[in-house]
């Protein structure tokens, strides 16, 4: 049984807590959260301790840490945990500044640390099946990838202001998905965007609607379509076209009931948001991290993946600002 | 927190154990199973006791019992539990003999017992939505109901022999579903059947493929289509036609990935069997039973429902044997 | 070029006129219709003659006749045409009285006549593909067949009164479809029905909603679900279950547009009625009849098929009246 | 009855011939095609004349001309027809050179000519319904448009060489569709492309795979995804996201049959190519042109539309060559 210290008792920390508790090889050992009484509540629910960062990292009973705290604390906690010899699961991103990411990863490397970066969508069974079918040659060589990624509704502007902007906050998942599906690094990126959902987002210097085009060394192309609002639930689809056909991962809808009447057929919309849609993905990524803890696997999704996705986000922003395709 | 004694540590008992443990108001207190080491294993997993029937029923800490043991033990356990004042959740059926069912229910009544019979499909979110939409008048008055219920593959003949036959074992769920959806009792039933899947089933005196037609007092009609084998997973669909349209509950498929190529589109088949398809239903029926335990609700699905479904099954068998429609 | 004399200038006669004119080997030579000015209008549109029955049948330029007149004239016209040596296409049914059908077919046989009976649905590309896939062994041996056949809205009661009743008028298509798909004759039939759509239909001695169950020599079972009203367009589906899977022919919808919003997805309902849904089928059956005219084929759908479908309809009515399964 | 002179007896000319003949207000009067015996064959089929260009344009019986000849003859024929006072239907494009298009349109204007440019896809019932639903406010203001347009397989390289390149030959339809759906002119365009399907296409200086991003004055964005090969039929889809939801026009598949078995569900692929998919669109655009001939309508799709789509194609090519977003 591996004991886990959880940093951050917020919404995503609670999701991970349930998965830590539900896995037969892991136990929620302690919760670290300096703000409010979230740590105490979560600790009580799972019969865990409340610890400070220092306590958790010096506690020899802690085998792994799960960093789900505020974004700006990730890099430092990763470094401390690496120095303390703990196996590390960190929610994306490592940091919003790429130089800080590189320093952090250098520290991890210097301490021979093991770091898994939680790009949860790689563990969605639909997307994983697409990746596997592509690898199996079902549609031949990949030629075009289309990623649709639209949130049901925008976050508060207070969040937008500290988010790093659409590309670093939201599209970063899609950049990682493009890398995951295509299996190669893009060589160029172009981005176009608008503020259509909420004027305040524009006033905060960000956009809420975007299209991105990437090119890969093989000549394959990818496009990402983003919006902070869908009007019909969480829209998370990919399709990859190859020499012999196309692989499509559709949304998962709320139910399978259809009502047919004079005005046609009414059926259910996609599951509301990431907690529903990626429930299985969160469990599956935890199962992978347990394999890492147990020495049965290396992190499939590493600090390098976090760095690369952020780099593309930075270059996409540069493209948005210059109106030019940017080389990578 | 309500303490539950579980009778039966088999496959379905294990499903219920997880739900008992996962509900914030219930705890798996003890496991009763005289055969093998199933009780001990399950008890260890959930930090529960192993008890005998007598111990469980006399233990004042036990608030409710969940009967998931062999079918022929249900009626007696219900009676003992009712006499012991425990709130009772019993897997269907109460018994395969209708007179025994009636005696048992009389005992429950005499002891003012609370008995919930686990027709799990009533708690499937798809079927429940159909029932709710019908009640809401979405398609007007119900006129025709079609229930498709096909297992992926037949059970062993040893099971068939003690099952009570297709109608009492498998179709009983569909008879209950017809009553649940239509909200009225059928007035006639006709059944036709064949042995097409496995000759041994026929040699055991049973059938493996059937169509049933029922008529209701309102004039509405229902048909049930059954097979012990589908070839493509667990096929569980209903459609109810009304004055203004039709409500359809489709299968839930394994994933949402589509592969389009020269030979068309390949997509996933339905989820394999009842443990997958009705996972949500098992959780939801447990939540209802907790409401019963807490005095917040009366059993929505009672001993009477168990009796009525069995009665229709008996009459369907009579119809199959006589080639005549049987009045109810 | 084969010259065709058309009997009956009504709605279905007009459909056939267009197909006769559109086929490169046939020409609409004359129209026969004693009522109103329909014949004159249709003849003008296609530069054809108006003829009397006698003129058409004695005209050596007429190679084939298409009988689309009132039902009660079919048998006599078939006999006259057979005696005149014309190749005959007759809309279903030959007659509503089975003895009259048998006499008529005997006359055709005595004159070595060629008679095609227009069970148009056999030529629907969806249903034909199901038949072909079944023959190709895609799902193994057929075990269960479900036919859904629901009209968008009921005909006037004046029509109901001369229609021969639901089974001979509407279900007869489904009886033929069952024979076509299964490739064997049923050995028993059971029918249950109600008047739910229109009280006047009941007062006219007919029903408007029905379920039928048939059994075949192989043990395979079939059910038919009928209603004179759907509320959502013309509902024409079949599914046939076999050893290895199921073949389903779905409805054809009006368009492929989906609107996703807060309340789910709205998509189009099935094409309105038989003129839309079976447009391709009418063309394809005509193409087959041209093969018969040209001596390249024998009628795939013969007088015998018309007789058998009517016989099942008669026995279904007997079952409805007696509450018993009827042997065939 | 309007008499039509058809220029060009090739594949698309034959499609139009059937529609001219099938419309109750138009008649195929003559066919003009200097190459081979196509004109004679088509004229014979529809009892039309064979004429030279001069004969057709000076014949007072000719009311309208349909230009479906080789691309490089379009502009001159339009000018001659405008001068001759004929109402003009011209297949896209007017010309591959934008200056030549402008000269031609000036000539049309100087002669008060009526010119309809055949962007057939605007008349596809699916796409038209999307446009209508958008106008009706079903999803609020448009924010993002995605056009998927992929041919089943590439044309011969000999065609590629005279086609004007992917953007002017194929994407031009999608540029027009974007203008049609959005109802505004784009202000910028970015294009990225590759040669993935056929090396010879690259050697001919063209690409076969492309993504295009456009921005509109409202801030709305559009992307187009193109390939000369799909592997699964003609892929023609659009989706437009708005404030309140999304409108999707899906492909039309070959049939509605599904085969479910151990390996999932197999269903039919999209209709093969434009002759099938846009059959209804060709008929509907002809009906519109008849309204123009009859003075009941002005051309919905004019020379200006042809010019604008070509202009965007030219700018997309500039973007592809420079790696920069190009302003319009």
* Helicity of chain A, as a percent range: 25-40%
CATH topology of the largest domain in chain A: Dihydrodipicolinate Reductase, domain 2
Largest interface by residue count?
A-D, 42 and 42 residues
Structural class of chain A: alpha/beta
Rounded Rg of chain A: 20 Å
The CATH superfamily of the largest domain in chain A is: Dihydrodipicolinate Reductase, domain 2
- CATH class identity of the largest domain in chain A: Alpha Beta
Biggest sheet, spatial arrangement of strands of chain A: 12-11-7-10-9-8-15
The CATH architecture classification of the largest domain in chain A is 2-Layer Sandwich
How many structurally independent domains of chain A? 2
Mean pLDDT across the residues of chain A is 97
**Envelope shape of chain A:** globular
Following the backbone from N to C, one meets helices and strands of chain A in this order, namely: EHEHEHEHEHEHEHHEHEEEEEEHHHE
Q: pLDDT below 50 for ≥5 consecutive residues: which ranges of chain A?
A: none
């Amino acid at each position: 049984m591996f004991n886990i210290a959880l940093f951050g008792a917020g919404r995503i920390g609670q999701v991970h807590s349930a998965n830590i508790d539900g896995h037969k090889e892991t136990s929620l050992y302690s919760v670290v959260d300096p703000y409010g009484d979230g740590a105490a509540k979560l600790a009580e629910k799972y019969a865990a301790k409340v610890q400070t960062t220092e306590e958790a990292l010096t506690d020899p009973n802690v085998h792994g840490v799960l960093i789900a705290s505020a974004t700006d604390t990730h890099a430092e906690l990763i470094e401390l945990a690496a120095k303390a010899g703990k196996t590390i699961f960190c929610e994306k991103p490592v940091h919003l500044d790429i130089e800080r990411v590189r320093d952090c990863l250098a520290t991890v490397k210097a301490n021979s640390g093991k770091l898994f970066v939680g790009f949860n969508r790689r563990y969605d069974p639909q997307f994983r099946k697409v990746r596997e079918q592509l690898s199996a040659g079902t549609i031949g060589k990949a030629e075009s990838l289309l990623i649709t990624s639209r949130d049901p509704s925008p976050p508060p502007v207070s969040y937008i202001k500290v988010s790093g902007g659409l590309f670093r906050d939201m599209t970063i998942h899609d950049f990682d998905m493009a890398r995951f599906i295509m299996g190669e690094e893009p060589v160029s990126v172009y981005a176009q965007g608008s503020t259509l959902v909420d004027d305040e987002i524009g006033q905060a210097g960000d956009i809420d609607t975007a299209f991105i085009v990437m090119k890969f060394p093989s000549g394959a192309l990818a496009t990402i379509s983003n919006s902070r609002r869908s009007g019909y639930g969480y829209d998370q689809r990919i399709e990859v076209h190859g020499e012999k056909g196309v692989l499509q991962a559709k949304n998962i809808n709320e139910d399978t009931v259809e009502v047919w009447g004079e005005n046609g057929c009414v059926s259910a919309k996609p599951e509301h948001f990431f907690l529903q849609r990626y429930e299985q993905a969160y469990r599956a990524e935890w199962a992978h991290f347990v394999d890492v803890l147990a020495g049965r696997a290396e992190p499939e999704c590493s600090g390098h993946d976090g760095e690369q996705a952020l780099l593309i986000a930075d270059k996409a922003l540069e493209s948005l600002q210059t109106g030019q395709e940017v080389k990578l």
